[in-house]
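Handout, section 4.2: multi-component inputs.
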Amino acid sequence: MPAHLSARLCSLALSLFLIAFALPAFAGPFEDAVAKFANDDFSDTEEAIGVVAGSGNKLAFPIISALQDGRLMADPDSKKVYVTGADGKSIDAATGEAVASVPDSASAVRLNNRLRRSVDAALGSLTLQSPDVGTRLQAAQSVFKSHEETALEAVDAALAKESNKSVKTALGEARAAILLFKSDATEVEKLEAVATLKARGDQDALALLTGMGDQPDSVTKAAASAISSIQSSLAVWSTVQNAWYGLSLGSVLLLAAIGLAITFGVMGVINMAHGEMVMLGAYTTFVVQEVIRTRYPGLFDYSLLIAVPLAFVVAGAIGVLIERSIIRFLYGRPLETLLATWGLSLVLQQAVRTMFGPTNREVGNPSWMSGAFELGQITITYNRLWILCFTLAVFAILLAMLRYTALGLEMRAVTQNRRMAASMGIATSRVDALTFGLGSGIAGIAGVALSQIDNVSPNLGQSYIIDSFMVVVFGGVGNLWGTLVGAFTLGIANKFLEPVAGAVLGKIAILVLIILFIQKRPRGLFALKGRAVEA
Amino acid sequence: MNVMDTRATSAMLYLDGVHVSFDGFHAINNLSLTLEPGEMRAIIGPNGAGKTTMMDIITGKTKPDEGTVLFDGVTDLTRLDETRIAELGIGRKFQKPTVFESQTVQDNLLLALNVDHSVKATLFWRGSKAESERIDKVLETIRLTEARNRLAGSLSHGQKQWLEIGMLLAQDPKLLLVDEPVAGMTDVETHLTAELLKEINKTHTVMVVEHDMTFVRELGVKVTCLHEGTVLAEGTIDQVSSNERVIEVYLGR
Amino acid sequence: MTPHMLTRSLDRGATIFLAIVAACGILIPLSNLLLPADSFLQVPTYLVALWGKYVCYAILALAIDLIWGYCGILSLGHGAFFALGGYAMGMYLMRQIGTRGVYGNPILPDFMVFLNWQKLPWYWYGFDMFWFAALMVLFVPGLLAFCFGWLAFRSRVTGVYLSIITQAMTYALLLAFFRNDFGFGGNNGLTDFKDILGFNVQAEGTRAALFALSCLALIVGFLICRAIVSSKLGKVLIAVRDAESRTRFLGYRVESYKLFVFTVSACMAGVAGALYVPQVGIINPSEFAPGNSIEAVIWVAVGGRGTLVGAALGAVVVNYAKTFFTSGVLAPYWLFMLGALFILVTLLLPKGIVGTFNAWWAQSKEKRAATSVSAAAEDGVTEPKMAE
Amino acid sequence: MFSKSTHDIAASFSRRGVLAATAGLVLGLASLTGAKAADDTIKVGVLHSLSGTMAISETTLKDTILFLIDEQNKKGGVLGKKLEAVVVDPASNWPLFAEKARELITKDKVSVVFGCWTSVSRKSVLPVFKELNNILFYPVQYEGEESERNVFYTGAAPNQQAIPAVDYLMKEEKVKRWVLAGTDYVYPRTTNKILEAYLKSKGVAQEDIMINYTPFGHSDWQTIVADIKKFGSAGKKTAVVSTINGDANVPFYKELGNQGIKAKDIPVVAFSVGEEELAGIDTKPLVGHLAAWNYFQSIKTKDGSNEKFIKDWQAYTKNPKRVTNDPMEAHVIGFAMWVKAVEKVKSTDPDKVIDALPGIEAPNLTGGVSKMLPNHHITKPVFIGEIKGNGQFDVVWKTPGLVAGDAWSKELDGSKDLIGDWVGKKCGNFNTKTNKCLGSGS
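Output:
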């Protein structure tokens, strides 16, 4: 045993001894409990939370909430515990007296997951009657989660006074959860509880019903029927959920592939460095966030809005540069382009690795992209939802651009008949550069979105390149709608296969299906037909 | 037209009620056409009349949506692929001269010879005297003996056209489909080509697609005019060129 | 192979190439084994193993050049056939370990023992016999290529579409072989080999012999490729590459030709993989990685597509460059160099090293091109077009 | 010699063969030169990927060894000679690992190699080290089931990481239901097999264990996170034991955070997520999730050794934010042990050093002293850390003493009777039941 550890254990034992014999002479149970926060021992802290929360002392709420926020300071030497407020003023936790300053030797009382749950439960029963509706709802929910018998009284009291409908429902459910586990609750109470939970009908309710242990027969029977009804409704929801996951995966695939649909689909350039354009977009996001973090922290929520145009410009400019310096010499030799751009992708990866280091970079989610909301029984995360919307928006803008702008018209003209377009006065080489730049720029934008769900590392692009090609080829080269349908088809198929076959086999199955599908339709889902294709 | 129907079984090539459309565009519309054995037929028609698509249908490159295509009165061509159709004895020269540019003139002809085309036969192939004699003969016919060891890609445009005709000869098919053989040729070359085709016609059935009216006139054969995928007029060159609808189509309305 | 095919396939370039390979195959092992270790002329064992690896890569490159350079089939999944051949050999080597594995289990390979497999899966049967494994080295890649090609060529999947689905094929295999449930050792692959045909794989003599054998395989593979491309079949292949539908209208069953060379090429890749595994001592699913296959295509492009000699040379040059740049002060920058090499070769030497050399040679001795038909056919491969 | 001969042959053919032959000559000569090692330095091989997929983890370890060599040279080197690092880049390519190992040992004549991260890279170089008789220090936690004479394992064996972590969850968090989620490769497979056996021995029922494998670099975690959520809502306290590898972790944690799985509901304990990995994630939603390691950067030591190491490291890399992690500490210990062993036998001869290493003690960075065991694994303390909002860990539990690394897991049928002992038995896989040294170890 290392020396310092045994020393610490000795001092711990000594201090326990001191607490046990020296302190009781002049302190009550509340003060004893508060002093335990200073022991830096999780069991002691847990005990202290229980005693403080149940003490009825008006200091209980400030202490527990300070504990939750890491504002409860304890001095291991003097065994004094302080609550520091957000305003910098501090009080002695045991007495409530204001103190001038917290000693330097004091540090925040540490928590672990078990204690966080205790804190939640304690705060739940303490804040059931808070004036704020949101706090009350949260309190009711945490009581529902912890469903400790001791909270029953508080719940009943709160229920009697509660006027808000949703809080009332939550309180009712919390009460049901408590009663279900209360050994001396009557059969009628328990049956009512089962009915309440059945009405709630979600995973948590199911969890409580399946885990409730020995009950009277009638209750067990009612619970069984409730369980099966919840399960069958959840099964339906899980299909909906798979479809949503599929859409979400499809949107990621689409986003990664749209740029390729332009450079590969429209121009016929097999751009193996496409993934690296995505990566550059992600790194642009990182740089933008870095600048915002250090200079303008208030703008963090707008970081992505700033990054999108920047990423477009950065990746687009590099795309134009690549087209001018490499690809334009290789038109008509698509397979050679493949090799050159592969080399290029190695160079770009290593360049980023040299500049930013090989490790992942942190790109944060702005607040509006964090978290999730419940829609029925499925969870929809904001980042996935935004990415779906964003993808569709990018797709729509791109379509509109190709259809209605002069550049779009020129692009279509050049790709359909280069010589004719040139003789009509279109600067084909400029159009080529701009088309490639557009494709790369869109890949850059994709990088901004993908930075929200994936690693930002030099390898980022590699993980999307194969999938992107599959999507474009599956959908049919040269057809943006094909890319859209292809991406969503593959996404949804993947997500419905995954629960059945597992992630790996599901992916293999998709690849095999693509191979077989190409046999059936050698030019993809939406192939252009007719003689023009062959020429 | 009705007269021809009765002779359908004896025809070398018989098309009836053929339709094909690409993405809603009707490239061939109720096309019916008959070619007798030993006949040479010129097909004319403005751009987009469906001439090349018709050839695609005959050679199996494009499958018609409906209609009958019979070869030699018995073989349904719509069910066969290009290779099988070529093996049956239908040879084709493309609109844009298509020769194997990175191979020599001689090898181009060697590849075209109608001998066993199986993988095994070509792998263990050793040249025979009969083969080289045939190649020599074809080279002479198409006047490329001097260029036999040159790469096909280095030939002039007219020479390429001729090489492709030579490949048809080497293939020795029952029916030759010749798409715009004189495009880009000088007057002299055009004349020589007409002579060559007439010579070929002595032993083969030929269908020629051509824009060049002088050339068609020189061939002096029956002419079919296509328009919008259907037969507009048929007869001698003078009959067809005096047909009002043909004039309307060619000169615009 | 009939004698006329052999004589036909040997032009001057081919003869020189074969002489060099044969000389390496004989002299390097001899120098390694017979000369004292401190002699300057002695080739150290690590170089024998290294060059043995290059030779295996050269065989793979030949296989790719046969289908890409001559028939226009760009396979971005040829690493799969290489790896399958390697796995077949690896399975034989695993079974040869016998009781010398860490758990001393006479039947089950170590990775099966510690993942609690109770018995050998059926597809491991027979691999304890060398002849069976050797057969599988050809059969498994060949069969996969045949099935894949039969489907793809018959439905006329060509060009980029074909390239992408070959990539999908190797990617699917990569994922499958990563799965431990698949029974091929998962990510760790097959390793810790002891004996091959009763000889210790680590021994210098075995290494030298394997190197000589690899050179022999390269020679045989080269001769097979030459025999194919210099026969009439070779002319048909070039015809398919340059104008696929024209070839069809001449009455050639293009899919049969493609299927034939694709399968032959896959078998060659399998042999390359089989020789590679005992020399590097490990086979793992990363050999299936699409990047590896793309890299192999790049060797061919660097050396010169459609020249065979160039393919082999390209494999050696690129891999030597990789070995050289990944050590020492250049190590952090080697990807820049490799990437730049690929870009520059495609831009400045579109015909590759040998192709450019040939073109230069043909130019300086122009009249020579007209004298011999076969030389012209090879020298004159100008700007191979992608098949439609 | 071969170059000369090929040249002779080529000369007789001159013409077209010249190019090929010259290329061969140049290449041959280039590979032969530079093989001479300087005698006034001791060479140390560094075999970590600097490019490719593993560069993300391994580059730091290369820097660590360079740093350690630098420090050692400041103290006067070893045996009066300076240490010289030979850095190669095996590029995350497993056969290249073997090739580079061979090159380091034969061409550069290094005395010891510090390297590898993945198991497959170690497996790939293993035959090379055995054949050429050199020393490899392997610094990463791994699946165990190995004890080789030429390899010293300074990372954790499963019993130094996985089992203590599960014990902690059972005891402290009262976890009753387990999700074992991992990337599908050998380390997670083996670790999960061991854990499954261990959990069952502790009375956990089969239906309370869910095992899930995902491919490398898996990035779409929606379904699996939802499954975990579902599995976790069966009324029993649930935890996830994650052996998810490298790149897949960031999207996994992001999905966890977004789907609102809080550590206090379903804690995730990870064996492959350290400070370096967390540097790429916003850790605020992850506070409370756990990791088990033998070292954390945040650990405070009495003698200040960790604090000093971090300060020197950040000064060396000129990056005040540069983090430290567990495999780095493993290299620190391994390097110190090697130096001590070399000084003990006054030679860098691998045989002597290999024999001297077992029993050597070196201070670890958490205030204790680690010891090299006869099975070539080391003793280490085990810490459980909770993720904090700043990307660091807060140690919530530690083993009372040091845990000795088991080369062979006691939980697996195949290996429960095996031990590695290179001191007494001179055998890496000795069967204590039959008293026989199995397989190749003899």
